[in-house]
Give the backbone structure.
Amino acid sequence: MVAASAPGKLILYGEHAVVFGEPALSVAISRRTRVEARPGRRTEVNGHPLEEGRYPYVAETLRTTNHNEPLTLTTQSDIPMASGMGSSAAVTVGLLACLQGAPGPLQKEEIARTGFEVEHAVQGRASPIDTTTATHGGGILLLKEREENFLWSIEKGETRWNLHGSPLPEMKFVVGSTGIEASTGPLVAQVRRRVEAQAVARKAVERIGEIALEGVEALRRGDLERGGDLMLENHRLLNTLGVGHVALDKLVAASMPFSFGAKLTGAGGGGSMIALTNDPVGVTQALRSAGGSAFAVSTVPTGVQLEREP
Ligand code: MEV
């Protein structure tokens, strides 16, 4: 038996624009998915036969790695599904770690590369932000150029992402969940159509890239006011790209009296928002009163890791 776990993530700035190669910043969080793999008589996940529609990321991971031997897979997760918090990347990366298995340290770059290919195949289009964050942990900054703290670069077609570790001061975030599940693939496709058709959407993508760069600078120097203002601007631009939702706007507005700034996180269309705050209790109560579910998260340095048998 082999088991591995990988963290969920929050994108602080840059989702969607990052698919077009713009800069983006994400952090790994203290919620994880654990995957356990043992040889079996037929491949099944959590007691169900492996079906493409039900477990697309698992099916694609086994296909991409040419893994043909039957496996009994069990997953356990405290990352809500289809909520913008990287649950698909965590299960993909966790399974890839199981397939790589012992002995020796995990080949993380290899896991991140294959994880990206899996997400790209399932979603039709993707950036490596989710899978690299689930693999490496900590803060992850995607840049057009290669700079300090470089980890690896990944390319697809004409787009190249240079992935970097991004040391950040400790910050407090509250996640507010709309409870509306939204799949990433159709939202990414919708943004592409808008960007192809509308100059205002192309401008929004470019400005989101600038916001990510300004945001990481602000957070590094501890300027949470500026970091929060940039989150709000990023949120409005995501609405321009068509991936917002009234339920997200409501939660963002409810969090503002208690936070520096807030925005949707991940693919949008429902899912979750995040608020940067020094008052997690105040934000949590405000989000619950506005009809969302809410919980505080901490950021974690630990990416994917093999686990001992429980
Ligand atoms: C989803 O968590 C982030 C998106 O930018 C898609 C991607 O980068 O693959 C919406």
